[in-house]
Design goal:
Number of helices: 19
Helix content: 40-55%
Number of domains: 3
Largest sheet: 2 strands, parallel
Distance between the termini: 77 Å
Radius of gyration: 28 Å
Number of strands: 4
Strand content: under 5%
């Protein structure tokens, strides 16, 4: 069992009974009751609790029941051994947290999180956003529990799930609190990264309402001046995010998402200082510069310009409506991507032919995409 030397690193951490039981749950004692009793004297919240005072006339099951009641409230759950109780303690703690989230105040949630460590997981984050009384403040408190990159990845996974399911409320709450995770974002801007992550996930699953939520957050460009992208990082960020979103929507046949993304891209223009991205034809219509780049499959990165074609993806998967929309918007059908062979580029017609999508092949031939 643990000693009480204050120089031990755990001594300065939260020493309430729950966290002590969690920390020392692998400890063994000749009398299993001492797995609980030995921690009472060093706990910050259970030293003077009458029902927990050491009493060896009590059975092990009675002691476990009293401890469980102290930690989590009254319950019909019973345990035969200390090991089974301590194995279940983390999930019981999560259930208690969610119950407080649904029924109590923000201050109650804050108090619970101060007293009890809660492991941040994708499932817990989703559950917290789905049925809460206290709103976004609770999500903020939960995200403050993130301690590592693993926690950060759990938040990203939760955002991906919420986006793919069209859970607008969860997406909004997570994006509203994204800045809390900035310290764990490495070299990236966390709110921007979350925006792109959400955009791509929602686009791949055809969740137009989530995409509209994102567009509302960055402003309605149709009613204002075009947004100028005036530094290399912003160009790379915006172009790569919107390109990937368009490619995913095209590859999955979500025609309404494709149309929405193309409408948005017309609100960006590239300044003259970045003219290496723009050819002569595109300079004539600055407001659509990013849109044309997306249609042509061009994204900027530190090494220059990469070409991947959304039209080719839609054609290869046989999505006739998406192909028609992309062609109507000005997509160039003679740019290909290396998806069927590392040795050559596949054009839209080649991709449709390999996939045996006769209607798409016929459409491309009619619109002038010749081998």
């Amino acid at each position: 069992m643990p000693g009480c030397q204050r120089q031990n690193s755990w001594w300065s951490e939260n020493r309430d009974l729950y966290n002590l039981l969690l920390r020392f749950r692998e400890s063994r004692a000749s009398d299993p009751r001492d797995n609980i009793y030995a921690l009472l004297g060093i706990s910050s919240d259970a030293q003077d609790v009458d029902i927990l005072k050491p009493d060896y006339t009590k059975s092990l099951q009675e002691i476990i029941r009293d401890t469980s009641s102290f930690l989590f409230g009254s319950s019909n759950i019973t345990y035969k051994t200390v090991t089974s109780f301590l194995t279940d303690i983390s999930s019981r703690n999560t259930d208690s947290f969610l119950n407080i989230v649904r029924t109590a105040s923000v201050s109650d949630v804050d108090h619970f999180l101060v007293q009890n460590e809660v492991k941040v997981t994708e499932d817990l984050i989703i559950a917290t956003t789905e049925d809460m009384k206290c709103g976004g403040d609770v999500v903020g408190l939960l995200l403050q529990q993130c301690r590592s990159q693993f926690d950060y990845f759990e938040v990203k996974k939760a955002l991906q799930v919420a986006s793919s399911r069209g859970n607008e409320n969860a997406v909004k709450l997570l994006l509203d609190n994204a800045a809390i995770l900035q310290k764990m974002g490495g070299p990236y801007n966390v709110p921007d990264e979350f925006y792109g992550y959400t955009l791509c996930s929602a686009s791949a699953h055809g969740q137009t309402q989530v995409i509209r939520l994102l567009l509302d957050r960055i402003g309605n460009f149709r009613d204002s001046d075009p947004l100028q992208i005036d530094d290399t990082r912003d160009i790379s960020l915006n172009m790569s995010q919107h390109f990937l979103a368009l490619a995913l929507a095209s590859a999955h046949g979500h025609v309404h998402v494709v149309e929405l993304l193309l409408d948005l891209s017309a609100s960006f223009y590239i300044p003259e200082s970045k003219s290496y991205l723009i050819d002569e034809d595109m300079r004539a219509s600055k407001n659509a510069a990013l849109g044309l780049l997306l249609l042509r499959g061009a994204i900027a990165d530190k090494d220059g310009v990469i070409y991947i074609d959304s039209l080719c993806l839609a054609s290869g998967n046989g999505y006739e409506q998406v192909v028609m929309l992309l062609l109507d918007k000005g997509a160039e059908s003679n740019v290909g991507i290396s998806i069927y062979s590392e040795e050559r580029l596949s054009t839209a017609l080649q991709a449709a032919s390999v996939g045996r999508h006769k209607k798409v092949v016929k459409l491309l031939l009619k619109r002038g995409d010749m081998p």
